[in-house]
Amino acid sequence: MVSNLPTPVVADPAQTRQVKELKHARPLFACRFDPAGRFAVAGAQGNDVARWEIASDKKTDLVGHQSWVRAMTFSPRGERLVTGDYAGRVTCWSYADDAPRPVWTAEAHRGWVRAASASPDGELVATAGNDDLVRLRTIEHGTPVREFVGHDCHVYNTLFDPTGAYLVSADLKGRIKHWEVATGRLVRDLNAAELHKYDGGFRADIGGARGMAFSPDGRYLACSGITEVTNAFAGVGQPLVVLIDWYTGQRKQLLKPKDAFQGVAWGIAFHPNGFLVGVGGGGGGGILWFWNPEHVQSFHSVKLPQTAYDIALHPSGLELATAHYDGSLRIHAMTPKA
Amino acid sequence: MRQCSYACSSVEHRISRRSLLAGLAGGAAGAMGLSGFAHPAVAEQLKAAAKRVLVVFLAGGSSQLETWDPKPGTDTGGPTLAIPTSVSGVHIAELLPYTARQMHRLAIVRSINTKEDDHGKGHYMMETGRRQEPGMSYPTIGSVAAKFLASEAESLPGYVHVTPGGSSFGTTDSAFLGPKFASVTLGDGVLPTTAARPESLTESADRMRNEMRRRADHRFQQRRRTAETEAYSQSYEQAAELIAKREVFDVTKESPRDLERYGTHDFGRHMLLARRLLERGITAVKVSHSNYDTHNENFDFHIEQLGEFDRPFATMIEDLAERGMLDSTLVVVMAEFGRTPRINHLLGRDHWSAAWSVCLAGCGIQGGAVIGKTNPNGTAVADRQVGAGHLFHTYFRALGLDPTKKYVVAGQPIPMADPQADAIQELLA
Fold first, then answer.
1. Helix (H, G, I), strand (E, B) or coil at A50
2. pLDDT of B38 higher than 70
3. DSSP state of A36
4. DSSP labels for B87-130?
5. Which residue, among A141, A120, A127, has the nearest Cα to A75 in the 3D structure?
6. Sheet containing A58-62: which strands, arranged edge to edge?
7. Does the CB of A205 have a partner CB in chain B at under 8 Å?
8. Which residue on chain A is closest to B293 by alpha carbon?
9. Count of pairs with CB atoms under 8 A, one residue in A, one in B
């Protein structure tokens, strides 16, 4: 019997192409899709968060931050978006409203808020900042729950593991801490030291996990950034993704672009089909890379028109969003043209 | 073979500074042949003698938007916020919280346009007050201070440069003033390890060796004195003095409290050493802080670098004031240029000399003053544009020196400062 069921659409990195370009007045610094895939939001090098309704391209700005927004996370329920800015402020938004408004605001960190992550159950949000701290709050009211003390330099990223029982944070020097959410206990230290360099010539540190992602099954943690830096002040270095076996804590793989590229792997995402997709920018412009976690080199790449600072995977698994220096949010489909 | 073209063959070299001033007092100024010193009041010159200079050089070109002239909320301001200071109405960048508390002792010039985006040329311009010219080199402010303000009785170098880099003698920043007034560079603020006399060499033997060297040098130079032999001899003499007085350069001799106040990182130690040197009679000290050439990730790197700069600098200002030294110490925080208001795709800022800032203090510089301004996003000077020449005139006036006077070099009169510029009067008491 011949089946009349439609053939499921499967993401094919080789088919990746830009299908939409959405514009903002300032360079875009971060991007996410909401859990329903209805909206795309982007943080900017400015005070506003941009929200686009994907079906109509209608743009609405979320107004209230006082500085650049890099930290963004959607709660899996309750239509809540939490964003953090470089003035240390964290805001929770009712993002799906016609006129999104702040539900609560907190002065969460001294200095930049670099990252935010919502727990899988939608109860908690973790933020990481330049005060070397990771802080936990309730999403509903922003009530402080706990802080995680142990980093001694800027914390670049934080993420809940897929179970929600644990939190991971990574700092400028590539040190990763695995925390128990319920107690605040430090479970173990891991490292992605390849993502840090003290540049003796310019006498400054460069590093940090700019992007971080868990595989959907929780088996792997990917941290992306820059490595083999020869000139920190000119951005001369190479993108790198450090892939860690979360169960064992051991290094699984160091993922690199197949072709030479000078710059930073700014964002990384795991696809449910098992591959990773990263985005980068630097002297070489902007680029998307696709990796099989078993192999060092990327198996596919797509040149982008401009440096990109973040990547987001659509809940359908068929589209990607990238946030760009030229103020564009570019939507890419990983499917063939109709 | 190049003959001495500067003071070594001129009247002012053969007559010591002390006798120079005595000669002035005795009405012997007419014998000088140096129009720049014609009939100055002796008291004023002696008063000038007690002054000193501290230059803090933010190598690579620090961003004015991340230091003295923040533009929060604009398309060029980046994430850097502005904070209030100890002077009502004056704000500086949030990355300088300690310095903000010293604003009442500081002055900022926000309207500098030097039109020079090259590191080397910009550095030269800011330290000499002149553009580079073919065939002509001018002395830096540190060398000028060493020449005209240092006590004749002081045997230590008049100008010391503390740098994160390597040590060196025989630099050429004194130009025609001669090698005696060139900076002695201390890498990481320490004397070279070779500065210690070997244990196998006794003090008396060392003394005899040096005396023999001096006699041999003198005999040679009677017939063949050149710029090179002068520099050679001067380097040896300077080195000998440094060895003899090495404890002056030992910052670990400072109190644990001060070591903690200034910070144990390199720049903190270097600033504390600078204070020590100024207190012990060295006339000019330059401290370089590296690096600010932030074409990439400007904001992260300024957080790190200014995090080192802020507290030691503020502590230095406070200490100079409390010790009664600020009135007689000119402090200048400068760089070779500023950085572009436009933020590039690497999150960096590039070279920018069209609208940037310098900070000054001491020697009668008006505390709390803000001179000039830039437009709302910092892309141009909006009021009171000045250049390196204006700053140099201002330094001279603050130090009690007349910038309109002239050196006499190989018989040629050379203005001490660029005659196209003048002092920023609003800064001077």
1. strand
2. no
3. T
4. STT-EEETT-HHHHTTGGGEEEEEEE------HHHHHHHHHHSS
5. A120
6. A28-33, A39-44, A49-53, A58-62
7. yes
8. A233
9. 64
